[in-house]
Structures are given as structure tokens and as C-alpha cells.
Amino acid sequence: MDALVQAWNANNRKCTKCLIPYLPTLLDSLERHGHLHLTDACRTHLLSMSSATADRLLRASRTPRLHGISTTRAGTLLKQQIPIRTFQQWNETQPGFVEADLVAHS
To answer: Nearest 5°: phi and psi at 65?
Structure first.
């Protein structure tokens, strides 16, 4: 179990469908660099594992990713119904008219 978690972390916690085909190369590399020491039975067990089994074993190690506080607010329906006067009228049919919406990305 610890070897699977270590290999999963070394593979940037990618999905197990991507991890399992790469596992033989990854285990060899982790052992060669001294990060992992496996018995033959453990190695055989890991290499014969399906992605569904790996998902079940990694379930306890997965932590939910917390979402940050949103920096934008959704407009209400009432705001859309209130007319806004600007210094000039907009002409959406004129070529070159541009309308932009600001969105925060964090």
C-alpha cells in the first residue's frame, strides 16, 4: 500500500488509468534511486494490479481539494433589468463594437 502511494505521488497523483501502465518503469526508477525497497511478492502484486483496485487502495490517501474563495460574484436578475445610462449610447450593429466582461482567475 505504501509503495503504491509513493509511486502515485511520484507520478504527480495522476489517475490510476495513467499510473498502472507506467508503474513498471516508475517502480524500477524509484528502486534504482533508493526511494523504494520492494520484495518480489510486493512487486508482483503491484504489477498485476488493475486500475480499479489501485483506485480502491488510494481512496484513503486522496484528500479533497479545497476550493478558494471566489473573487467574482454572479449578477442578479434584477441588475439586468435596471437600465444604465452611459455618456453615449451603444451601437451593437456598428463594426468594431466591443463588449468585455472581467473574470478573475486565481
So the answer is: -80, 125
Is residue 46 within 8 Å of residue 38, measured between CB atoms? Answer: yes
Per DSSP, the residues of 20-87 read HHHHHHHHHHHHHTTS----HHHHHHHHT--HHHHHHHHTTT--PPPP---S--PPPHHHHHS----S
pTM value is 0.58
User: If pLDDT is split at 50, 70 and 90, which confidence band does 62 have?
Assistant: confident
Alpha-carbon gap, residue 30 to 76, rounded angstroms: 54
Query: CA 54 to CA 20: how far, in whole Å?
Result: 8
In the structure grid, which three cell numbers stand for residue 12, read together? 504527480
